[in-house]
Amino acid sequence: MRIAMLGHSNSGKTTYVSSMYAALQRGPSGFRLASESGRHHEELLRAASTIRAGGYPPPSSQRSEYAFQLWRRQQSVLDFTWHDYRGGALFERAGDSPETLQLMENLAGADGIVVFVDAHHLATSRHSASQARRLTALSQRAVESRHDVIPVVIVYTKADLVTTDEQWRAAGAPLAALEKAVLESPNIAGMVTRVSCRTGQNVTTPVLWLVSCGLARHVEQLENNARSSTRAAEAARERITLSDSVGSFFRNERSWAQIADGHARDAAQYRSQFRSLRGTSRKLSRAAARAL
């Protein structure tokens, strides 16, 4: 699964990744997050410790890619990559920066998108509307040509700094069109949440929800693969004849009996994986629902 983050500089993307990773070292219902990179593991935990002490990591100055693994107890559940881009890449023309071009390509191929916006900045700055329009345009472009359903989360960061209903109305106004598209579009599974890394509010919600969507799709695909392989095995068995078995032996080719056995083995493997992950997928969906 590939998850892409969108957000302008100082929107809290880098801070979120560290806080989320630390919070999911011992997550709900036995779920936990691991990094394939020992260096990333140490860096993220060190940054999270700094955040808990009242400091914040500097905004990302370059593109980062994290390879994560979701585990439940001793079972590896799902591998996913988490792409972070420096905020300035969002506002450059695609032809001006290789990173911006890469961002557009990855958005088009992403399995999930997280849109980060600084709620306090939206509520208090007159210049926030232009940034919101750019985020809206990029998000809509990323999903408008998709034929599958893609999960998209809008994350309002620094929620602890927005203290009144009037401020929240001001923060939400520039993104009203994007929220409507995310929550109502037929090719988007959408969710909107408020996050505060300083207080720990909802830091696990976006990733749990996105990964639960990805795991549910993976489980569905395993079931479909098992059915397809079963049908292929049945079709191959209908073509088994003695002459084919003998002729295939002398031609050094796979016989229809061997082809049928191969499809049957594939079906059994897919079915075993499906049964192993089906219950885990349901538990993850419930954990994500509780986080909401």
Automatic annotation (TrEMBL):
<dbReference type="InterPro" id="IPR027417">
    <property type="entry name" value="P-loop_NTPase"/>
</dbReference>
<dbReference type="Pfam" id="PF19993">
    <property type="entry name" value="DO-GTPase2"/>
</dbReference>
<feature type="domain" description="Double-GTPase 2">
    <location>
        <begin position="3"/>
        <end position="169"/>
    </location>
</feature>
<dbReference type="InterPro" id="IPR045528">
    <property type="entry name" value="DO-GTPase2"/>
</dbReference>
<protein>
    <submittedName>
        <fullName>GTPase domain-containing protein</fullName>
    </submittedName>
</protein>
